[in-house]
Amino acid sequence: MKIVSRNEELLRDALSRIPQSSSRTSLSSSNKLIRFEDISAAAFKIQCGVQKTPCMYSRLSKQYGMDIYLKKEFLQYTGSVKERGVLYLLTSLPQDQQRKGVIVASDSNFSMAVAYHASELRIPVFVIMSTNTSPARVKMCREYGAMVISYGTTAKDSQTHARRLAQENGYLYLEEEDSAVYLSGLGTVGLEVYEQVPKLDAVIFPAGGHCGLLAGSAAALKHLNPHVSVIGVESESFPVLQESLKAGHPIEDRDFRNHHFYGDVSGLCFGSNSLQLTGKLVDKVVAVREEDVLISMLRLLEYERATVDAEGAIGLAALVAGKLPELKGKRVAIIICSGNLELHLLQQCIARALTLDNRVCRFSLVLSDCPGDISKLLEILAREEARVLDIKQERTFVTSELFTVEVTCTVETRDKIHTAQLRNALLERYPTAAWTER
């Protein structure tokens, strides 16, 4: 397609003042203007190597008063949108470098994508992981075909070791950055969404430190239709992108430590290219609370049968939090970019989200220690259609009068209204019942 001159000028102006950094050891020399032709070329080159994921109408639409379409990038083979940028990056390497191999040093989605696609392309691939990396991640990376080496107790130790091995053996050390090649691969998401959803009004992306998906896709969408609103969403706890945009450069001196729950969205801003593109082409960046992200994960699990991580759910969290009222009645696409939620976190996230959503509650009351009193309590719960999850009785350490028992009960309800009805019914019978506030 021919580039519309106005959008080409926007892209060129966004990148014209970027200083060329020598700190990157892998691809900094390939930083250049990202053009629509670059994104189109990437889409053609990777079409047989990544999934063209569905962008489906969601049952959540009625709940939030707009037509919601979910772009399910978590259905990629490694569960992440990063595959798009990685595959285009690897296929763009010179053949002699492909023969020598590549090396990465992290347990991120980027490293998983490198491990899988390098193996598929028969490129030798080495992944250095710290010794405290989740065993499940190590196992998965090996199954993708990479040679995994455990080294050091911190990410910095692993990166130093990887750079040394790269220098000694001729491997190309890769770390996620915002080269034009990588951004072009990620930008193919914007092309697909525009093709899959007619009359699109807005697209919501995860943001944060690694905003390459947001920047690359914004370049594609704004070229195809400048009137499509492009919105980024990040965590209130790690407002990396907003702080970097205010400062006019990637934030380096703030303590934005990577939070395991949030993944890449909590890391430092990794480059000026994507930051400048975001500043020029993205209409809005909003921040959401952790509670909203957890409820968003619950909504996607219930309504879409989609088990996603915080990075994948953070786009929907902006609607859960009511941060985008201007989208009411509009046609909106949300990028669900990652589904790599570790199993040990899954149960904790669901339990916490149910509590935040007022669907699991706990109360305590004191009953006389007589036959039938517990049965009467259970009859009330059954009549109110509350599901008992746990019930405990305490006799030894009760401070009330003799021959009484303290009962603590955890129950599941349908929603906030149902919880209020149950509370009123119990207080009518047991005025001293105490509710545990979330």
UniProtKB/TrEMBL annotation:
Protein name: L-serine deaminase
Keyword Cytoplasm: no
Names of the cofactor(s): pyridoxal 5'-phosphate
SUPFAM superfamilies recorded: Tryptophan synthase beta subunit-like PLP-dependent enzymes
Matching PROSITE patterns: ACT
Stored InterPro entries: ACT_dom, ACT_ThrD-II-like, Ser/Thr_Dehydratase, TrpB-like_PALP, TrpB-like_PALP_sf
Gene3D superfamilies to which the protein is assigned, alphabetical: 3.40.50.1100
GO biological process annotation, one example: L-threonine catabolic process
Gene name for this UniProt entry: Srr_1
ACT domain sequence ranges: 362-438
Record Pfam families: PALP
Keyword line: Lyase, Pyridoxal phosphate
GO molecular function annotations of the record: L-serine ammonia-lyase activity; threonine deaminase activity
